[in-house]
Structures are given as C-alpha cells and as structure tokens.
Amino acid sequence: YDEAAALWQEALKLDPGHFPALFNLGYMNFTRSRFWEAEPFLARAAKAKPDDFNTRYLLGNTLVSLGRGEDGLRQWRAALALQPRHAKLMQVMAVEYSKGRYFAEAAALARRALELSPNDLNAHLVAIKACQDAGESAAIEIARRAVEKFPASARANFEYGFHLQRVGQTEKSLPY
Q1: Which long-range contacts (CB under 8 A, 24 or more apart) does 110-117 make?
Q2: Nearest to 30 by CA among 106, 129, 22, 49
Q3: pLDDT of the chain along its 176 residues, tens only?
Q4: SS3 sequence, the chain?
Q5: Mapping DSSP to helix (H, G, I), strand (E, B) and coil, where does residue 163 land?
Q6: How many angstroms separate the CA atoms of 152 and 20, rounded?
Q7: Which of 66, 67, 169, 174 could make an SS bond with 164 (beta carbons 3.0 to 4.6 A apart)?
C-alpha cells in the first residue's frame, strides 16, 4: 500500500489532475475505511472525470460514511444518471433517502429498483420498507409477491404477515 501510494503521489506531483492517481489514492483509502483521506482524492477525481460512475459511487459512499448523507446522495444521483439501470445503487439510495426522511423519494426509487430486479429478495425487502415508511399501501402487495417468489424466506413471510395484521387481517396473517 505505502509503495503504491507513494508512486501515485509522485504522479500527482507531475500532473495534479491525473485521474488514475486521484481515483486510486481515493480508492485505496476507501478500502481501508480512511474516508476522511479518501474524500479529497475522490472529489478531485470526480472533477477531473465527471462522467466516471465508479468515482461518483465511491465518493457517495465515502460522504455517507463521513455522516454527510445529503452530499453523498448528490454524488449517487450523478452516478445513477450515468448508469440509470443500476438497481443496487437505487436500493442503497432508497435506504439513505429514508434516513433523511425523504420517504416518497425512497419509495419511488425502491419500486424502480424492484422493477429492474424482480428476482432479488433484497429489492423486495427494501421496497416494502420504503413503501411502508412513505405510508403507501403498495407495501402489502410487494410483501405478498415476495412471499410468493421466496416462500422459504422467513423475512418475506414475516413482512407479509406483519402487513396483513396491520390492515386487520389477523387470522390470515397467522400462518406467515
């Protein structure tokens, strides 16, 4: 690590905007959970190459890890604009939107991710939670589809049973 970092630093001395050096120094610090050190390199890399998905994605993760959720979401929105069908990123963003109490945005993004990944249990679970937080009745329908698609999943069964119970269908909820 130290030898590679020193070489990338040398490259930056020759060219302060050298994208590979900026990205790799940011990535190296990110992988070591040194987010405070990763952030300036990744921010500079994003300026040097604004259309790089990986840079925007990592910068978003870094900023969220530093407790700067709004800034992280901005970077993730830029990443999503570059890869608009990236369902995993949508799921991560939905969770972060919910933390910020942007429930409608979280639900819309989670439903979109579910449409792109209908065979992903986690996409169902994120969508159920996001719709529940937004007060949307779609949560019970998504939970029903989840338990049909993943009948062995304890979590899918729980979610469907929970939502049935919430709407007053206690007897129907008991098997789940």
Answers
A1: 111/138, 111/142, 113/87, 113/88, 114/142, 116/85, 116/87, 116/90, 117/87
A2: 22
A3: 889 999 999 999 999 999 999 999 999 999 999 999 999 999 999 999 999 999 999 999 999 999 999 999 999 999 999 999 999 999 999 999 999 889 999 999 999 999 999 999 999 999 999 999 999 999 999 999 999 999 999 999 999 999 999 999 999 999 99
A4: CHHHHHHHHHHHHHCCCCHHHHHHHHHHHHHCCCHHHHHHHHHHHHHHCCCCHHHHHHHHHHHHHCCCHHHHHHHHHHHHHHCCCCHHHHHHHHHHHHHCCCHHHHHHHHHHHHHHCCCCHHHHHHHHHHHHHCCCCHHHHHHHHHHHHCCCCHHHHHHHHHHHHHCCCHHHHCCC
A5: helix
A6: 45
A7: 169
Query: Which amino acid is residue 10, in one-letter code?
Result: E
pTM of this prediction?
0.89
Burial of 164 (C-beta count, 10 Å sphere; 0-12/13-18/19+)? buried
Helix 121-133 and helix 87-99: axis angle, to 10°? 30
Instruction: Give the tokens for residue 123.
Output: 């996409």
Sequence letter at residue 131: C
